[in-house]
Amino acid sequence: MIISAQKQLEEILRLINNDPVFLIGCSECATMCKTGGEEEILIMKKILEQKEITVTGYVILDPACNLQKSKIQFKNVKENLNKAKKLVVFSCGNGVQTVSEIFENLEVISGTNTLFLGEIKHANEFEKNCIMCGECIQEIFNGFCPVSRCPKHMLNGPCGGSRDGKCEVSSNLDCIWNTIYLSYKKKGQLNKFKQILAPKDWSKSLEFKRVI
Amino acid sequence: MIQYGNLERVLSDGKFAVTAEVGPPKGCDISKFKSKADLLKGYATAFNVTDNQTAVVRLSSLAGSVFLLNMGLEPILQLTCRDRNRIALQSDILGASALGIRNVLCLTGDHQSFGNHPQSMGVYDIDSIQLIKILKDMRDEGVFQNKEEIPHGKPQLFIGAAAHPFSDPLECRVDRLEKKIDAGVDFIQTQSVFNIERFQEWMDEVRSRQIDKKVHILAGITPLKSVKMTERMQFHIPGVDMPNDIADRIKKAEDPEKEGFNISLELIEKIKAISGIHGIHITALFWEQVIPSIVKEAGLYR
Ligand code: SF4
Ligand code: SF4
Q1: Which residues on chain A are in Cβ contact (under 8 Å) with B205?
Q2: What pTM did the predictor assign?
């Protein structure tokens, strides 16, 4: 899932700059991580109205990253949409751009920061697990990806900063190489640790389009 | 024949080597750096020039190494993977070798979030083990990382790396050292040693795998200057194992500098007695002036 977080209210207000707005949410990821589901959009609507900002309406796209579906959904709210000067989108960065693609004449504001592709660990906790490198090599690491989960992308074992199972960069972050090493050990695969991995082929991460 | 420098010669001759670290300045004024170098000349075989250590911007390690070279000191160019991708790293190595730098230390690098530009983007295109392998292939096979031949002169390098005997997960640390050797490293400088028992245990494992026969190992020595610095090393530097008795000695000492000096000498004595150790690497953070007397007192001045 794409994990996002709402921008600070002050930032959103600054971007809106007292103009009439139409709010856009997303039924998928942004709903799951509570940045742009119907619940959050209604709360935002209330807050903005308390600040005397005109909210002309709202829609929860299903989902915001689907261009054709979004176009159809927007048709049903056309009237309210046209009263707004700015569209504030509470989805991932992709959804914001889908909206921009549809409305060439309206100003589009991103109400969220898109953080990472990750797992829903608990209802309120998410963890980055993939940076979409284009060539998945998880099998080497027993399914624990250091490409995305080690801040230094170490492919050949832990740096000198690993301490008590935690990463030197943040004590909130597990050292993924500690996890990988323990997994090798548990499965009797310590020989896997000994192989030297060649530099990653980052050209694989340069896909910008896929057509089927 | 590869043209090496003195460090390789000393180590190949089986002599006990001394290397020391000199940090380049945070600016263009190199007068202090030069006076440090003057002070240290002759007290170590080669001198590590740090590469934006702790991710703080300083004069480049390449420029610092050239200054040392011109003053008649042999540099060890430190090179981290934090700020440069494989193109820039290989390019810097060609430049360094052409300028006459013969030693390089391959490091992954301290994360940028610790430094003075935490907003910067880290590169980490490759890791230290991959860097070792790339440099070895450049030197021995005459090829770049992409396997393309180096058409106009391959680099001449003595390749070094760091080892972390006290970092977690402890059990993997000798394996990781072995990987560096498989990648092609020639010499190793370890993290600063304070816990001699644990260092001995690590060396027992190193010797049992005959690793000391394949690579030159220099043990890290850091003279403790003050209570504050000791506490920093004890609690905030990952991979440092400072036993309480050493920390207590500094805390109780009337003259912490003198005590720190004595502790360093005692550690060097014990390290010299460990079989498989080929030298020491002194990192005296902001206290380089102490290095000559340590080297002399330890009987390592030649
Ligand atoms: S290896 Fe690449 S694609 Fe696979 S999980 Fe890691 S970052 Fe994602
Ligand atoms: S501590 Fe572990 S996760 Fe953190 S940078 Fe080092 S190897 Fe990567």
Answers
A1: none
A2: 0.96
Domain extent, residue A149, equals: 133-202
CA distances to B15, B172, B194 from B276, in Å: 12, 20, 18
Distances (CA, A) of B34 to A69, A95, B100: 68, 57, 19
Q: Is A132 in the pocket of ligand 1 (CB under 6 A)?
A: yes
Q: Nearest C-alpha of chain A: how many angstroms from B270?
A: 24
| Together in a domain, A28 and A70 | yes
Distance from B301 to chain A by nearest Cα, in Å? 31
**Residues with Cβ < 8 Å from A191, sequence gap 6 or more?**
none
Q: What would be the CATH architecture of the domain defined by B6-225+267-297?
A: Alpha-Beta Barrel (3.20)
**pLDDT digits 0-9 by tens, A173-183:** 999 999 999 99
Contacts of B127 (CB under 8 A, 6+ apart): A152, A153, A154, A155, A156, B81, B108
ipTM of the complex: 0.95
Q: How many folded domains does chain A comprise?
A: 2
CA A107–ligand 2 middle distance (angstroms):
42
Compute the count of residue pairs across chains A and B with CB atoms less than 8 Å apart: 97
Which of A163, A181, A202 lies closest to B172 in CB terms? Answer: A181
**Contact call for A202 and B125, based on CB within 8 A:** yes
